């Protein structure tokens, strides 16, 4: 069994209290991490505040060199990291390794981009102040609280931690409970990389128990959170005077507007809907299609779903157990509600505990919960809708506004529809997705506030400092 301790001020913290992490595949313990108490959490913030003052004075290239040491240890330990992740969140091994390597790419790009966060210089001439020159530099905000979700425990954590550190902030990092083993492992790597004392702290503990303590500490200058709408809203309340970037849930629609290349569209839809068993904020979570080729699309989707392997992460199955039994009960509830109200199960609707077979539901109507709620699991509803206007209307009725996909060969139609859909990003002829990671990534409505992506994260974790020269 794995055991990793919380990491505060470059010390590994043991207080006799442990948080058990359950392996979703075996439903047995995968390991444990320290369950921190109030005093430890307060110490993490004190250390972060103290350390930040010296860290922001370290030259940028020196800060980059420290982070590169940390990155080199990630590369060296890539298989171990993927293995831990796979054990605690049941992401298949190949995808877990993919997540680690994608993170290394993000780190490289972030460190390069940090060199290009140049000051802005301007004169006051346009406002009648011709004897003034202002130089506005981006400087660290201070102490950043980074909170990550279970589904990308390595990538979505470091996509916050690295931009914060390179710009001279210190970090208090709270990993998701499922994801805490790999989260606390980062503390071990930070220690080995000899990151300066106190700039990176890992606070482990169950969100429902220590979440308020973690998010309401007065030392926090900014919170970067990825997770559910409910917790995001709780953080809005606790951190109301703090800068916030929130990346929350989604109910991304795919609008299939022609049948010119249904085979290709179906490949994108399958990968979008069922990657990591549907546990992606950007997963395609509803498909809108015209009746006259809906049967054909459904047939192709069914054929492809039949070929998805279902099983264990270590065998690289496409569909692996969802994060816990409670989540699978919730997903099953959405399927059962749809069935009761007349939806047709094309394939799936089978489960063993939290291992759920990929499910395709046809003839889904807007009175069914699955038309609106985020399952975060391997289930895809098909809504047959016969006008583009109605598709847009139903897409926009959702409380979520993360992403959408439009499948259509006529670029004018695609662009015209894209402009009317109320989400952060519209993907024409591909699944919805966060990457490439240099793109801005954002949700509107309940899907979030603020923007992530490499450059945007560097900007959101800094503020302007203006120096005005009068002559
Ligand atoms: P979650 O339950 O909201 O948890 C997210 C993080 O918040 C975890 O670290 C969790 O810790 C912590 N937390 C829980 N309660 C807290 C509290 N009261 N105060 C502070 N922190 C608290 O979300 P999840 O189940 O991990 O992830 C699934 C959700 O995240 C889905 O809705 C998905 O769409 C969304 N998501 C969105 C994006 C995006 O970029 N838009 C990306 C990934 C996921 P514990 O685990 O210890 O409870
Ligand atoms: O789960 C939310 C992630 O931000 C989605 O990232 O589109 O690369 O899977 P992804």
Automatic annotation (TrEMBL):
PROSITE patterns: ALDEHYDE_DEHYDR_CYS, ALDEHYDE_DEHYDR_GLU
Protein keywords: NADP, Oxidoreductase
Aldehyde dehydrogenase domain boundaries: 18-465
This protein's record includes keyword Coiled coil: no
Protein name: Glyceraldehyde-3-phosphate dehydrogenase
Record-linked Gene3D superfamilies: Aldehyde Dehydrogenase, Chain A, domain 1, Aldehyde Dehydrogenase, Chain A, domain 2
Residues of the active site: 247
Protein family per UniProt: Belongs to the aldehyde dehydrogenase family.
Gene: gapN
InterPro entries, A to Z: Ald_DH/histidinol_DH, Ald_DH_C, Ald_DH_CS_CYS, Ald_DH_CS_GLU, Ald_DH_N, Aldehyde_DH_dom, ALDH-related_metabolic_enz
Organism whose genome encodes this protein: Spiroplasma gladiatoris
Keyword Cell cycle carried by entry: no
A GO MF label: lactaldehyde dehydrogenase (NAD+) activity
Pfam families: Aldedh
């Amino acid at each position: 069994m794995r055991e990793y301790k919380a990491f505060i001020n470059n010390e590994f913290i043991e207080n006799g209290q442990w948080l058990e992490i359950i392996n979703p595949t075996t439903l047995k313990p995968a390991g444990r991490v320290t369950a921190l108490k109030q005093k430890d959490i307060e110490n993490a913030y004190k250390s972060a505040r103290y350390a930040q003052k010296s860290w922001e004075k370290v030259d940028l290239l020196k800060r980059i060199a420290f982070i590169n040491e940390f990155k080199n240890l990630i590369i060296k330990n890539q298989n171990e990291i993927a293995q831990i992740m796979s054990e605690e969140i049941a992401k298949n091994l190949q995808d877990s390794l993919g997540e680690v390597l994608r993170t290394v790419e993000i780190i490289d790009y972030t460190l390069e981009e940090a060199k290009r966060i140049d000051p802005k210089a301007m004169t006051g001439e346009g406002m009648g102040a011709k004897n003034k020159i202002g130089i506005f530099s981006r400087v660290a905000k201070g102490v950043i609280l980074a909170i990550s979700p279970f589904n990308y425990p390595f990538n979505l954590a470091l996509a916050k931690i690295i931009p914060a550190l390179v710009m001279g902030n210190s970090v208090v990092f709270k990993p998701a409970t499922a994801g805490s083993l790999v989260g606390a492992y980062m503390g071990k790597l930070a220690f080995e990389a000899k990151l300066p004392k106190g700039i990176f702290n890992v606070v482990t503990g169950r969100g429902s128990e220590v979440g308020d303590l973690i998010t309401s500490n007065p030392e926090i200058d900014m919170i970067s959170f990825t997770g559910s709408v409910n917790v995001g809203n709780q953080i809005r309340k606790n951190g109301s005077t703090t800068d916030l970037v929130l990346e929350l849930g989604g109910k991304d629609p795919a609008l299939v507007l022609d049948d010119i290349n249904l085979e290709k569209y179906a490949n994108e839809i399958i990968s979008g809907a069922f990657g990591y068993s549907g546990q992606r904020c950007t997963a395609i979570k509803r498909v809108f299609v015209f009746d006259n080729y809906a049967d054909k699309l459904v047939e192709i989707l069914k054929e492809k779903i039949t070929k998805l392997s279902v099983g264990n992460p270590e065998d690289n199955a496409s569909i692996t157990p969802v994060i816990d039994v409670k989540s699978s009960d919730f997903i099953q509830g959405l399927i059962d509600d749809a069935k009761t109200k007349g939806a047709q199960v094309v394939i799936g609707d089978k489960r063993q505990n939290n291992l759920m077979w990929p499910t395709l539901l046809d003839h889904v109507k807007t009175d069914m919960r699955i038309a609106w709620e985020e399952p975060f699991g391997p289930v895809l509803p098909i809504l047959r809708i016969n006008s583009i206007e109605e598709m847009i209307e139903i897409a926009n009725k959702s409380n979520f506004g993360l992403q959408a996909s439009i499948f259509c060969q006529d670029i004018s139609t695609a662009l015209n529809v894209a402009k009317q859909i109320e989400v952060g990003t519209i993907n024409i002829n591909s699944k919805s997705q966060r990457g490439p990671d240099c793109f801005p990534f954002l949700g509107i409505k309940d899907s979030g506030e603020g923007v992530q992506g490499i450059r945007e994260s560097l900007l959101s974790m800094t503020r302007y400092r203006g120096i005005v020269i009068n002559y």
